[in-house]
Hints:
By secondary structure, this protein is mainly α. The protein has one domain (2-66). Helix content is 62%, strand content 0%. The chain is elongated and about 50 Å long.
Amino acid sequence: MALFTARARAVRRDFDLRANTRAVAEICVALDGLLLALELAAARVNVLSAAALRDRLERRLPLLVAGPRDVPVRQQT
């Protein structure tokens, strides 16, 4: 959360972790704590609130991690 907060404050000086603790924690979990992913996400707080960013990640990540749905069961991982 510290990295996300630092990067968010780099693009938006008034970013307040106390007001966004839950959303930032959920973003960190959704991105598996991957440093580059957190930095890229935090850079978006200049146009999206932390809650809006979290909501967008929740909608888009399943698309990226679910894999193809039309393959045989034995090939699904």
